[in-house]
Write a structure and sequence with these properties.
By secondary structure, the chain is an all-alpha fold. The longest helix has 27 residues. It is globular, with a radius of gyration of 18 Å. The N and C termini lie far apart (40 Å).
């Protein structure tokens, strides 16, 4: 029932513990798949009224989002592990796509913005002033580029009879693609830093 969901979100917002932050991230992004969307729309609007401008809650959301960082090392070069199960790879999902989705969600929660789709969130956030138009455009372009690399990578795996994953070896890329990926990760890193400074006073 709606009253129960109101109670859940109220508790998660008022006590932003790690599990609460994970749950609000999941359920705030939920979409209606069938029937009347009125109850879900009403709940989302109520949640947004509660989160808009709530700096303590937003600071916790930013801290949680910063657990997923682009794989950039010293001097802005792409970094990767030489050991482990997937050596010499970068995780496109958790190093690029998830951080952008997290940024867009925080813009939505901070500004009381109702879109659920990441690109729409960024576009509306730019119009409302939560983020600059240039930054929103850069994030959208970055998301599209990283998603295209992942799609091509997974298509190659499928053609080779392998199980598709998110772990890309840099030698699969051209020099241009590698340079563009480095710049794309840099966009995400810079905007994560901006949010951290806004809500947490830096790292």
């Amino acid at each position: 029932p709606l009253a129960q969901w109101r109670e859940y979100f109220s508790r998660w917002i008022n006590r932003p513990e790690p599990m609460a932050l994970m749950l609000i991230s999941v359920f705030f992004d939920q979409r209606a798949v069938h029937g009347d969307t009125g109850l879900l729309d009403e709940l989302r609007q109520e949640v947004l009224k509660r989160t808009r401008g709530q700096r303590l809650f937003l600071a916790h959301m930013v801290g949680n989002a910063l657990k997923q960082r682009p794989p950039l090392g010293l001097f802005g070069q792409i970094s990767f592990s030489r050991r482990g199960e997937r050596p010499y790879t970068v995780d496109l999902k958790h190093g690029g796509i998830v951080p952008i989705v997290d940024l867009a969600r925080i813009y939505a929660l901070a500004g009381g913005l109702s879109p659920v789709n990441t690109q729409e969130r960024l576009e509306v956030a730019a119009r409302s002033g939560e983020v600059s138009a240039q930054a929103a455009r850069d994030l959208i372009d970055t998301l599209e580029f990283i998603a295209s690399l992942r799609n091509a990578h997974q298509a190659r795996q499928s053609s080779a009879g392998q199980r598709p994953d998110n772990y890309l070896k840099l030698d699969e890329l051209s020099g241009f693609e590698r340079s563009t990926l480095r710049d794309a990760f840099g966009v995400v890193q810079e905007l994560q830093t901006v949010l951290a400074q806004r809500y947490q006073g830096g790292f």
